[in-house]
Amino acid sequence: MWYLITAIVLIILILIKVNHISGPWEHSDKVVRGEGISKEVDWKTANISKCPPKVKEQGFYSCTTNYGKGTLVRSTNQCEVHIHDFNGDIYGKELKLKDINMHKLSFSTTFHKSPPKS
C-alpha cells in the first residue's frame, strides 16, 4: 500500500514541478513600446524586447516583477507583463522578472483582434 501512496505523491510533485520553470532565476530587459492596444482598454502592461530564455511555450504566466536598474500582443512572441495598480512611465527602463509559473488557461475567443473603437 505504501508503494501506491509514494507513487501518487511523486506524480503530484512532478505535475507541480512541470508548471514551474526550474530554479531560482531572474530575467532583466528594457521596456519597449508595443502596439498601444492595452492602453486603449486601460490594461497596464509593459512590453519587454526579449522573452526570458527559459520560457518556451506561449501562454499566461505569473511572476514576481521588479521595476528597477500580447494578452494583446498580435503576431510576435514579445513578452508583455501586466502590472497591477501602476501608472508610471517606464519606457526605456529595465524591468526584472523572477520566479515564473505557467498557468494553463483556455479561451473561446481570441485576443488577436483589435478592440472596438469608441
UniProtKB/TrEMBL annotation:
Example GO BP: riboflavin biosynthetic process
Q: What class of enzyme is it?
A: transferase
Keywords from the named record: ATP-binding, Flavoprotein, FMN, Nucleotide-binding, Transferase
Riboflavin kinase domain location is 24-98
Q: Which Pfam families match?
A: Flavokinase
Q: Which InterPro entries match?
A: Riboflavin_kinase_bac/euk (IPR015865), Riboflavin_kinase_dom_sf (IPR023465)
GO terms (molecular function) for this protein are: ATP binding; riboflavin kinase activity
Known EC number(s)? Answer: 2.7.1.26
Record keyword Disulfide bond present: no
The reply to whether Nucleotide-binding figures as a keyword in the UniProt entry is: yes
**Protein's name according to its UniProt entry:** riboflavin kinase
Tell me which species this is from: viral metagenome
